[in-house]
Amino acid sequence: MNSSPLVKSILLLLCLVESQGKAFIRLCYFPNWSNTRQSEYARFDIDDIDPTLCTHLVYAFAAVDVDSHRIVPMSPATENPSATTGKRGRYEQFNDLKRSYPHLKTLLSIGGEYAGSDNFVAVTRNDRILQRFSETTVDLLRKRGFDGLDVDWEYPNATTKANFSKLLKALRTAFEADRSGRERLILTAALPAGSHHIDTGYDMGALTRYLDLANLMTYDYHGSWNAVTGFDSPLFSRQSDPNFDAKLSTAWTVEHYMSKGLQADKIVVGVTAAGTRFKLNSTDLTGVGAPVIKSDTPRQSDIWQLPDRYAYPEICRLLQSTHTKYVFDEEQQVPYIVLDDEWVGYEDVKSLTGKVDWMMKKGVAGAMFWALDMDDFTGRVCDKGKFPLLKALSHSVGKIENTHLTKNVNTNIRYLTKYTGAASPLGGGAWGTLLTVVVAVLVLRFFR
């Protein structure tokens, strides 16, 4: 085959056109309790969402009712439409965002950190109940305008591992059997970062077969249970200190899932706007791994009232003190700050930009952001505009995609490289893929 620069450039461009059809997912969680906070800096509601920064919005959470074997709202009075006044419920208000932003996909998440396992076990204990649950789930999602379901079961174990797989299979079967004539409902799940939960509670074959996306909760690696300081969501493991578990990092978790058979193009890597806080045992020892004072009583943050955590705007307030020391840890690619006896490890614009670059090189499907309400959504605290973290994620994706599109392409082929339309000249989706393959075959035949 002729290996001229022309052929190489054409084939490279065709590959890039095809890759553009798979947009990097930015999946953002909206906590339904965030509108109840007292402070205007922390009180977040549907109207505060910027839909341009996310491709998928997830409404968290709804409950699984053990008596009716259905999904039910956490706050029926506000989330369901009013039977007396006709006022639209919050589910409908949430999904109304798609009217102005049709690119959006919306999902309803069930379960959550405090939901436990019992309700999930109850609806999977026999096939009849599970089928009813799955069919009523389709009805609810269609009725309220959602595009899919996110399952946040924390966590299946060795005993309930089969139940989780059965749940995913039943939901996927019901989604495919839906005869509404609309696009198939999306099925995702929030999955743990820790090796014990991963290895004992999940059948990777089932995850691959039934899930569209696997949302990895790659954070909470360290917290109030630790005796020393450590990062909430480090990109890389701390190899320089044998006292640190090498399994506690985003990279390790992602690579572990992939080694067990989960495809990269299903993986959505989690990032969080919350930072882990510690009370130092001594102000003379302030680095990563410094001893801390543990307490049985969680310390609530001032504004967001997070236990042993700070939301990003609260961290920005600490940074405004002239006594705050900022350190970016090169080994784990995340920052921490020290103010008196307070130590906080967190995510900032620099670390998030690096993480996105790593994700895209890894070939994963996208990033998951927990949660919208913990970024500086007012733009009045961090002095970086609204949603500085989420914008860093979104803008990093755009810059990296543009770099990948133009790098090493022969600019002399003007009729191919100067296209400036919003979509691929070969089209998107299945037809774009088909045309790409056809053109590639023709080029290869022509230059053979």
TrEMBL record:
The keyword Ligase does not apply. GO terms for cellular component: extracellular region. InterPro entries: Chitinase_II/V-like_cat, Chitinase_insertion_sf, GH, Glyco_hydro18_cat, Glyco_hydro_18_chit_AS, Glycosyl_Hydrlase_18. Keywords: Glycosidase, Hydrolase, Membrane, Signal, Transmembrane, Transmembrane helix. GO terms for molecular function: chitin binding; chitinase activity. Residues 1-21 form the signal peptide. SMART domains: Glyco_18 (SM00636). GO terms for biological process: carbohydrate metabolic process; chitin catabolic process. Residues 24-400 form the GH18 domain. PANTHER family: CHITINASE (PTHR11177), CHITINASE 12-RELATED (PTHR11177:SF317). Belongs to the glycosyl hydrolase 18 family. This is GH18 domain-containing protein. It comes from Littorina saxatilis.
